[in-house]
Amino acid sequence: MTDDSSTYIPFPDAKKVLKFAIPAIGVYLCAPLLSLIDTSAVGLLSGTAQQAALNPAVAVTDYSARLLTFLYTGTTNMVAMAQETDRGSTDKPETAKTFRVALQISVSVGVGLGAFLFVFARPLLRKLIGNDALDPEVFGAAMRYVRIRSLAMPAAAAIGTAQAACLGMQDIHSPLYVIAVAAIVNLVTDLVLVGSPQPWIGGAAGAAWATMFSQYFAMGLFFKWLCHKPVSGPVSVPPARFALLPTPSLFKSESFSTRGFLADRLHWRDFFRQPDPATAKGFTPYVLPVLTTQVGRCSAYVALGHTVSSSFGTVSMAANQIITSIFYSLIPVADSLSMTAQSFLPGIVARKPSVEKAKAIQGTTMSLLKVAGLCGLFLAGVVACIPLASQLFTSDPAVISLVRRIVPVLFAIFSLHGVFCGSEGILLGQRDLGFLGRMYAVYFAVVPYLMLQVKKAAKAGAAVDLATVWNIFLGYQLFRISAWVGRVAWLQRRTNREAINATDDAPSVLL
Predict the structure, then answer these.
(1) pLDDT, tens only, 279-324
(2) Helix axes of 136-150 and 203-227: crossing angle, nearest 10 degrees
(3) Tell me, what's the pLDDT at 126?
């Protein structure tokens, strides 16, 4: 292996991170964008009761789908590492095998999750809502939505995994094509179905059918994109990631496309075969820590939704659905920084301890945090426009008033959300999975406890409302940011110490 101690290791500057992160938004945007379209269509075409049904229903489907994040995190990191193994190869066999195995696993896991949601939709909704006196129309609409959306889980898992693999190969365009097509199909189908008076066709059910159709259409388009070579010539391959070159020009990978990359290497029969055991085993380190992380994150969202659904009534449920739909459509803007970190850092982290490795990690971290600050300013500006856009989601003045009351809390959350996501991505890119798992295990207990205290207070007649639970969420976000930034600084000091121990002439900048 090449001695890295005195060899320059290129790393992305802030401009490169920004160019990569903006298109990378697509990998996280699919599900929340479709839910946002559903929320708007149902609120305007079917009324407050059907929109209120989306609050628990979307919570069940989208939070369950977030449990698949271990697939996406594992895929991005493993594909990025496979790129290192394939450095210098023209056909990238290890990368292609990792990509194929990830897709095989994703479809199987998606089928299992979808079956679980279909069978247990009723008890899951009852637990989440926690209110037997809920309007039967609202509960029935929520049931139909969850069961229809459960049928689309294999497609959702496959799309997310394919997008994650593309980003691991630094293809920043293909995910955007899929998102654009899915959004257009979903919008058109919403307009056709949601206004129907038939309970299994219109309203919340119509929105669910629209999302399902759009996801399967997008999955088919993605597979065609990956498995058919362009007519004009052979498949292009990405340049060697982090190759030992003297200038950062290595990162000129924006033009790379995964189109046709799996041609003759992925067939529909592969989804009925056992994945390669050795490659599949590579996902194991990501399952428990990332799953724990997602359970910890989702527990806060689920507890928030449960408190609202069980304590504050139909108007608050409708308002909360609008708020959460906007929330989940904005967080991908910052979540893309997490995926960007996971695309660039693994190749650097895999190298031997050296001064150049420490400099490259530090340089990448600083670039990410600079972009994170810009991201926070942008998101805060968008949040400030919510009062002007609230009428796009409902015509109910009581719902609009509640939405506008939460805007200051969202402003504070999103001002710092870029720093949070960038820091979490740095931890994931350095495989600090144990720390994340432990912290989210704590959050899993603490945040729901605080939310349930609000529910208890509401039942006792205390002056608590929708703003109360969102203020708790703000405190949770501030604590996470402090913990993550502190951990990133600790990891950098550890990397610097390793460099000093490995090199006698380590410069004082690492001290």
Answers:
(1) 999 888 888 877 877 787 788 888 888 888 888 888 898 898 889 8
(2) 10
(3) 87
Residue 379 near residue 417 (C-beta atoms within 8 A): yes
User: Are 234 and 201 a contacting pair, CB within 8 Å?
Assistant: no
In a domain, 81, yes or no: yes
Residue 405's closest CA among 386, 382, 381, 380? Answer: 386
Mean pLDDT of all residues belonging to the chain: 84
Burial of residue 95 (number of CB atoms within 10 Å: 0-12, 13-18, 19+) = buried
If you compute the radius of gyration of the chain from its CA atoms, what whole number of angstroms results? 23
What proportion of the chain, given as a percentage, has pLDDT over 70?
A: 89
Asked if 74 and 282 count as a contact pair (C-beta separation under 8 A), the reply is yes
| 119's tokens | 């069978």
Query: What is each CA distance from 511 to 18, 223, 352, 491, in whole angstroms?
Result: 29, 49, 19, 14
What is the Cα–Cα distance from 344 to 389, expressed in whole angstroms?
36
Q: Say yes or no to pLDDT of 151 above 70.
A: yes
Residue 205 structural domain: 14-241+272-506
In a domain, 511, yes or no: no
- Residue 431 sits at φ, ψ, to 5 deg, of 60, 40
Task: Please determine, for residue 128, whether its predicted confidence score (pLDDT) is greater than 50.
Answer: yes
**For residues 106 and 153, is the Cβ–Cβ distance under 8 A?**
no
pLDDT at 287: 85
Flag whether 213 is in a domain. Answer: yes
User: For the ranges 214-228, 240-254, 344-358, which has the lowest average pLDDT?
Assistant: 240-254
φ, ψ (nearest 5 deg) of residue 114: -60, -45
Does residue 80 carry a pLDDT above 50? yes
Residue among 377, 389, 441 at smallest CA distance from 414: 377
How many CA atoms lie less than 13 Å away from 341 in the CB half-sphere? 33
Residue 369 is inside which H or E element, if any? helix 355-384
Domain tally for the chain? 1
The reply to whether 479 falls in a domain is yes
Burial (CB count <10 Å: 0-12, 13-18, 19+), residue 67: middle
CB atoms within 10 A of CB 124: 23
- Give the per-residue pLDDT at 301: 82
According to the model, what pLDDT value does residue 235 have?
46
What Cα–Cα distance (Å) separates residue 429 from each residue in 189, 331, 343, 421?
Answer: 38, 19, 8, 12
pLDDT at 496 over 50: yes
Is residue 61 within 8 A of residue 152, CB to CB? The reply is no
Both tokens assigned to 413: 């959350």
**Predicted model pTM:** 0.70
Structural contact between residues 358 and 342, judged by C-beta atoms closer than 8 angstroms: no
